[in-house]
Amino acid sequence: MTAPDPAGSRAVFIGVHSAAESLGLSALPAVERNLDSMRRLFTDGTVWTLPDEHCVSIREPGYPHEVLAEVERAAAEATDTLLLYYAGHGLLVGDGQDLHLALRDVSWEDDCLSYAKLRSRLRQGSRARRTVVILDCCYSGQALNGEMGSGGAEGESKEARDERQVALQKELATVVADKADIEGVCVLTASAATRKALSPVGEDYSAFTGELIHVLSHGVLDGAEYLDMTAIYDAVTTRLAQRSGMPVPQFGARGHGADIVLTRNQAHRALESPTSGGIAANAPGFAVPAPERGLPPVLATYKGVEIRDRTVLLQFLQHLTLNEGNPDV
């Protein structure tokens, strides 16, 4: 998969750092710095060289329509990659415990921005081939409901995993049918559906975004020339695991979402040569070692859709053999 073309890509960065005392939500001063640094990385050439007019920062939105209108516009304009980043408070609202994103000075939970509405704007009318959503907020893993291939909740039982695999299998045919020219969707979240994200007092950034910024800025040692979303997820998770009490990030993908290339690896090693000694002179000194863990290996593909689970693969092959006779796998 190729790296994003800045001319056809769009990014929307949303940050809410103010307190909402009526909901018991404290101020998050690190979020303001999150927003500034993330935008800089995508416009200064570290990640993308995104023109200013292709990059929108929404600071302290007070009403859902302020966000939804900008997201809808970006989705309609993007022809390559669409990226959405949110940092702030997350809440679980109603009997269904639906994820909502806090806005400025909200007084009621249902005044917050429904992630379901946000996801709908990302999908409706979008021309983007690739979509990446990054959520740095409490309970952000709830956004993975309905997304294929999630990393699973912390402490997930075998029964729950089995149920998730059955659901994944049922979605597979739909994903194949809907794929068309869409390469994939990836959702990366700071925490599981039942866990709070953390913003340690005195640190420049929230915990998750701080490690994400480090990985994007310094790269992954011994990694590939370009970092896809799987490599970024692995590296951020590895760094957070070295810190006590940090929630485990979550990861969900549809289609080729796990393989979406986001950026050049800043720590990529040059080819061995007699004069260079094999390492680029400008290789960062604080790059992340390439982790061994991550998504399971791809066992097969069917019409561009990757299958990573052995049970799903066997059942799918049986289904195809019965219905098509000669599966193109």
Task: Produce the secondary structure layout.
Layout: E1 10-15, H1 29-43, E2 55-59, H2 64-77, E3 81-87, E4 90-93, E5 98-101, E6 113-114, H3 115-123, E7 130-136, H4 158-178, E8 184-189, H5 207-218, E9 220-221, E10 226-228, H6 229-241, E11 250-255, E12 261-264, E13 288-289, E14 300-302, E15 305-307, H7 310-324
Parallel strand pairs: 1-2, 1-3, 3-7, 7-8, 9-13
Antiparallel strand pairs: 4-5, 5-6, 8-11, 10-12, 14-15
- Largest β-sheet summary: 6 strands, mixed
- The averaged pLDDT comes out at 80
* Relative helix content: 25-40%
* First and last CA, distance: 19 Å
The share of residues in extended strands comes to 15-25%
Q: Which structural class best describes the helix and strand composition?
A: alpha/beta
Number of alpha- plus pi-helical segments: 7
Q: Which term fits the overall shape?
A: globular
Low-confidence stretches: 146-154, 168-182, 270-281
Textual characterization of the structure:
The protein is α/β, with parallel strands linked by helices and 329 residues long. It is built from seven helices and 15 strands. It has helices at residues 29-43, 64-77, 115-123, 158-178, 207-218, 229-241, 310-324, and strands at residues 10-15, 55-59, 81-87, 90-93, 98-101, 113-114, 130-136, 184-189, 220-221, 226-228, 250-255, 261-264, 288-289, 300-302, 305-307. The strands form five sheets. A six-stranded mixed beta sheet has the order 2-1-3-7-8-11, with helices on both faces. A three-stranded antiparallel beta sheet has the order 4-5-6. Strands 9-13 form a two-stranded parallel ribbon. Helix 2 runs parallel beside helix 3 and helix 4 packs across helix 7 (310-324). It is globular, with a radius of gyration of 20 Å. The relative contact order is 0.13. Mean pLDDT is 80; it is low at 146-154, 168-182 and 270-281.
